Structure formats: structure tokens, C-alpha cells
Amino acid sequence: LVPVPAAxxxxxxxxxxxxxxxxxxxxxPNADTVEVADDGSVVVTFKDGSKxxxxxxxxxxxxxxxxxxxxxxxxxxxxxxxNFKNADSDKQAALTTAxxxxxxxxxxxxxxxxxxxxxxxxxxxxxxxLSELNGDSNLSSAKDTINGLTNLNNNQKQTALTAVDNAxxxxxxxxxxxxxKATDDQMAALKVDSNLTTADDIxxxxxxxxxxxxxKTAFD
Length: 220
Known about the structure:
This protein is mostly helical. 60% of the residues lie in helices and 9% in strands. Strand 2 and strand 3 form a beta hairpin.
């Protein structure tokens, strides 16, 4: 059967008529001519001159939207997951756009006019948008970055990791990571100051170099 949109069932377009002809000839190799009426019914003339009629129920079918329905359900469920909430904004937009298009075909303005090709495109767009979500990847990358900050103590790291887990968007994750990096830099500066424990280290500081000569002598 050739899938035909509901709106075209009584006025089958030429491309669908051509597909009906091809289908009929494929199963009737002795067919000479195939005449397709506007409603999809067919009159076949065979090479021996005999004729046969086919009702439109034998040639025209409905557009199959089952896979699109399944993918759209999966996509809507994904909207509630961290993989969506923590994804980049352009990837979120791609999914919501694909869902809107699917809704239009399944229940909206395109319900009766969408072709099988339209349905396939919408299904593919949903699959691609779902596969491109990167919220989980963003979360994992953020945790790797935080765990790699060598100047943070365990409590600071755990605080940052908890904040990342509680993030509700990609920008939240970025803010947490940037704050952790800033703290790491501050901790590094403190470690530098605390490491000035030897006389040679102290003699390199501005505090020593600019001290009065008698103070330097006393220190030496």
C-alpha cells in the first residue's frame, strides 16, 4: 500500500499515483497499463486485453506514524532528565523544536497533510536531537575538572562536586567550576606564602629586601 495523507485520500497526488502504478506492476508483471483514479482505485489492463479493478483499499494506506509517536514520547521524557537540563542551550533548543514538529504531525496542524517522508524527517530529527544532548557529558567533565584541582582540600572539593550535582543548567555548572578554579588559585597563593620557611626564601621577599640594614644584619 502507498501511504497517503488523510487530506489527500480523495485526491491522490501524482507522485503517489506513480507509486501505486509501480506497486501494481511489481505484483502483476503482465500488466500493460495501470490507470489510477483520484481516490487511488485502479483499473489494470493486461497484455492479453483483459482488465481488472482494484479498490482503493488495496492500493492506498495510511501514513505510518508509530515510530514517530514512540520517539516523541521518549523525547518528552528526556526533558525531565539532567542530560537535557544540563545540556548546552542550542542542543536543548534542537530537541524542543523537534518535539514541536512531531506534535504538529501527530496531533496538530500537519496531522492530515504530513507525508511519509515528512514523518521520517521528523523522526530522524528527534533521534538526532536526543543523541546530541550533552548534559551528562557536561556534568562528567565538570567533575573531572574539579577533581583535578590540586590545591583544594577534600571539603572544598566535595562542596564543589555537590554543587555540580545540584546544578539545573549548563550555566550553573560553568559557574560552579569557575568558582572552584578561583578557590583553587587562592589556595595556591596561600601555599606559596606558607612555603617561605627557609632563610634563603625569606631573603628573596620584598619584606627582606626593603628592610633597614640593621634589621637585615640582625636576621643574617
